[in-house]
Amino acid sequence: KKVWNWASYLEEEQMPAAPQKLFREYQSFPQGRNGFKVGMKLEGLDPEHPSRFCVLTVAEVQGYRMRLHFDGYPECYDFWANADSSDIHPVGWCEKTSHKLLPPKGFKEGEFNWTSYLKNCKAQAAPKSLFKTLSTPVTPSGFRLGMKLEAVDKKNPSLIGVATVTDMVENRLLIHFDNWDESYDYWCETSSPYIRPVGYCQETGTPLTTPPGYKDSKAFSWEKYLEETNSQAAPARAFKLRPPHGFQVNTKLEAVDRRNPILIRVATIVDKDNHRVKIHFDGWDHHYDFWVDADSPDIHPVGWCDKTGHALQVPLGAEDPEGAVGQACPTPGCHGIGHARGPRYGTHYTLVSCPYSDVNLNRENLLQDRLSGER
């Protein structure tokens, strides 16, 4: 039986690949190789707590991607990142930039010290040269810490809320919703379509979600709110809105499987809105489709896996299942790779542990919050 390849598949499907020029630099083919090695230590953001920088170890390397582990915590919290991710930094970065570093589990406030930690672990810090640095100097953006703005709530994209810039790193801002907990925080570039100047909702007739518990939520006035919170609005000139993403429906790409992020699959864009695209995995049922930001680091042009040395999961039914790994999982199309409870287990063979079973499909998070009980 012939080996699956993109060129014949696109012809067969009579569908084009999403043009490479639509992808952002960090989604497209990387310049260098992935120099990270298993066991190297670094600092980085926790995707579940975007305002927290943590002590991490490279646990697995796959092509241009790696699985990162929180030192001292169970493996089920591990997560995948690209080698050029903006969310990771060399050892010592937090101290240099006056960010608070969350130490590994078991360390008390102020006890942690990288030099002795690396020595005790007999571990190597990931060399600084492996980290992406912005080639262009960052020009002052007009944004300052503490400035207020209006921002789309990414968990509920139909809502726009009152928000504050709570951190800035290079060309990225950390957006926090006033009076909400940090699980709604996110990082974005200054050109992001998710952030708008104060007054945007009023001008466009869009409802503005006011901070929960704010006394005058019915008659919310920015002028009054800025005065009460003793803060400034981010100047309108600071917002450099980038053009719409340009991805079209019925074009093909390679996308990380959000439910099983060790895998990258052959995918089709089946819908789009201003900021997002809807990903369909070829050969899979449509109830597995999901929306992803058009600027997500987890979508790539056709050929990305091949170029970066990462396995690509071909469409369901395209190849003989005989070579399937793992035991037979009852979910159609699932080869038993991965596990609903995260990377601690490489394979599964029951519905309860299958990332694609109906039981797990719509559960936001099976895991207890990593930091609960120790804030």
TrEMBL record:
Q: What is its main location?
A: nucleus
**One Pfam family matching this protein:** zf-C2HC
Designated name of the protein: LMBL3 protein
Q: Which organism is it from?
A: Ptilonorhynchus violaceus (Satin bowerbird)
Gene name? L3mbtl3_0
**Has the keyword NAD been applied to this entry?**
no
Please tell me whether the keyword Membrane is annotated for this protein: no
Q: List the record's Gene Ontology CC terms alphabetically.
A: nucleus
Q: Which InterPro entries match?
A: Mbt, PcG_chromatin_remod_factors, Znf_C2H2C
Q: Which UniProt keywords apply?
A: Chromatin regulator, Metal-binding, Nucleus, Repeat, Transcription, Transcription regulation, Zinc, Zinc-finger
Coiled-coil segments: none
Its domain of life reads Eukaryota
